[in-house]
Fold:
Amino acid sequence: MYRSKVLKSFALGMLAAAALASQPAAAQDKKLVLRVADQFPVGHFFPRYGIKPWMEQVTKATNGEVQFEYYPAEQLGKAKDLLSLVQSGVADVVLFAPSYASDKMPLTAVMELPGMYADSCQATLAHRKLIGEGGILAQREYAPNGVRVLFSGIYPPYQLVSAKRKIDSSKDMEGMKLRVLGGAMDLTIRKLKAIGVKMASTEAFEAISRGTLDGAIFSYGVTVNYNIPAKYVTAGEGFGSAAAIFIISENRWKQLPDNVKKAMAEAGEAASRSVCAGMDKEEIGDLEKLKQKGVTVVRWSAADKKEMDAVLASVASEWAAELDKRGKPGSEALKAALEARDSR
Structure:
């Protein structure tokens, strides 16, 4: 009898010890690990000002409950494929340029029209109004694709980057083969009688270095970050812009606890402001870096600017009308974007 009691006590002790030993593992199992992917090198301003601070803030706000596996520089997939990766669940959150999928996300190009915005923050904060609850892009662009925007960043106005050809006037652009993002930017370039070649920014360096392209439509920051061969760059209002959205699939979003959703939303608000402020600040410094490399900065004459403005004045209305014909609310999106810009 005594021996039986001893064995029973020993067994209960072992069970208790096992239960205690398993507690850290159980706690660890509660951690939510999410895969984040983008196309940019880690030194790019989107990771520095947006993605990394966003991940850090979410982890801190959830007391370590949410952790991230980060795959920069196309490690998880090519830039153009990131939307499908988040939709399929290969990645949980990605940074994506909607114009890479202009057939699926044509309306976001409203943020890329020439002459719409003076700087990144004006554009980015206007875009936040369009992606919020009831916003036209949230309802008519992102929801149909099964994704939700956590934060976004609209680049400063893009400029013409020429590898060799001198560009003293707008007429010098005629016939140039230029990398464009697609969508609205392609229409803009065609209006100026240049040839737009749609490709990811990560591919531009090689194409320009080989002479396949004459240059690109880029911000100064992108030109510096990707070491784009440049001999001339323009300055001024530019040729439109580019949008990038940090997205999670709606299916994944619905699976998240409320505290995690709250943390992500609050971190997204901060990240949008951080990204645009960082880009606006660095754009000035990046122009100086280009000058130090011997790049010539071209400023259009008053006559050239007047001529260019006249050519580009119709881009927005033509872009909207073309989408309207396809059954997409182009005119409605344009009106909403202008109202968001002017209501600040």
